Amino acid sequence: MKKSIATTFAALALVTGGLLTAGPASAASPSIQVVGGEKAPATTWAVQVEASGGSIPAGYVSNCTGEQINASWVLTARHCIDGIGAMNVYHSNSTTNKGTAVAVDSVTAAPSGDIALVHLRSPYALSSYAPLDLAASATSSGTGTIQGYGLRANATQSDGLYQASVSLTGASTDAYNGRAQHVTGVTGASNHGDSGGPLIVNGKIVAVCSTGDSADPGANTRAGSNYALLSQSASWIRSTAGL
Q1: One domain, residues 109 and 18
Q2: HSE (CB half, 13 Å, CA atoms) of 155?
Q3: Would strands 116-120 and 188-189 be described as parallel, antiparallel, or unpaired?
Q4: Is 93 within a domain?
Q5: For the segment 161-216, what is each residue's pLDDT rounded down to a tens digit?
Q6: d(CA 130, CA 121)
Q7: Which residue has better confidence, 188 or 66?
Q8: Spatial contact of 129 and 91, defined as CB atoms under 8 Å apart
Q9: For 177-189, how does the pLDDT look when each residue is reduced to its tens digit (9 = 90+)?
Q10: Distance between terminal CA atoms of the chain?
């Protein structure tokens, strides 16, 4: 997401707590995790992204989900970087014990879609990195898995990384009118704070969480959402992150 202060506050409105719904997430809203679903297995590359300052109201932080793709770069949603003043990345899968903050020194928005890359000030090596599918297009059949640190049902704060199975239900658009994969919950759905989190199909990340079909999914595990397809900015991701 471009660092435009004018559009930041609106975008932030859905960021806090998880997936955004009907618009980018907000720093001031409560953080939420995947609605329903189950605790995800240990996933080294699934990181917590926390922004503050800039257009974010004093005393608040904006929480999103991200995927570390190599030692220096983290993939997330564009709306998660809009108008921020500072950002840290945490590598624990626990939201109650996040571990040591790794500072971010630059952020950059993709040319197309709700996609962004975040650069770590110091390289942080992992045993494995997020597996990407940079060629996938939207489909109206099959299933996938979503993950995130966002709010759980009825805006209950999450204690860690959760995941859920979703149906792939056709082409849609993301928060920036980019190409997106629409999904409908099977065992769970995305919520505030899941923004930037992965949609995994056949073992690889094909898209990141952008918007929800409703502003608040409540406890609806069948809620729909839109995931920005990585393929629309594939060459930019490769060249920027050095993949």
Answers
A1: yes
A2: 8
A3: unpaired
A4: yes
A5: 989 999 999 999 999 999 999 999 898 888 888 899 999 999 999 999 999 887 77
A6: 19
A7: 66
A8: no
A9: 999 999 998 988 8
A10: 21
Rounded CA separation 20/18 (Å): 6
Tell me the two tokens of residue 222: 């069948």
Under DSSP, the state recorded for 192 is B
Among candidate residues 6, 199, 215, 218, the one with its CA nearest the CA of residue 114: 199
Domain that includes residue 150, residue range:
143-232
If asked whether residues 148 and 116 sit together in one domain, one would say no
**Helices of type H across the chain:** 5-15, 234-241
46-52 and 188-189 strand pairing: unpaired
- For Cα atoms 118, 18, 104, give the angle at the middle one, nearest 5 degrees: 20
Question: Is 142 in a helix, a strand, or coil?
Answer: coil
- Rounded to the nearest angstrom, the gap between the alpha carbon of residue 151 and the centroid of all alpha carbons in its chain is 13
Claim to verify: residue 115 and residue 159 sit in the same structural domain = no
CB 35 within 8 A of CB 152: yes
From start to end of the chain, where are the E strands? 35-36, 38-39, 46-52, 62-68, 73-76, 86-90, 102-109, 116-120, 143-148, 162-173, 179-185, 188-189, 198-201, 204-212, 224-229
Q: How many domains does the chain have?
A: 2
Take residue 169 and report the two structure tokens written for it: 């239900």
- Dihedral sign, CA of 69, 143, 24, 149? negative
How far, in whole angstroms, is CA 209 from its chain's centroid? Answer: 5
pTM value is: 0.84
What is the DSSP-derived secondary structure letter of residue 153? G
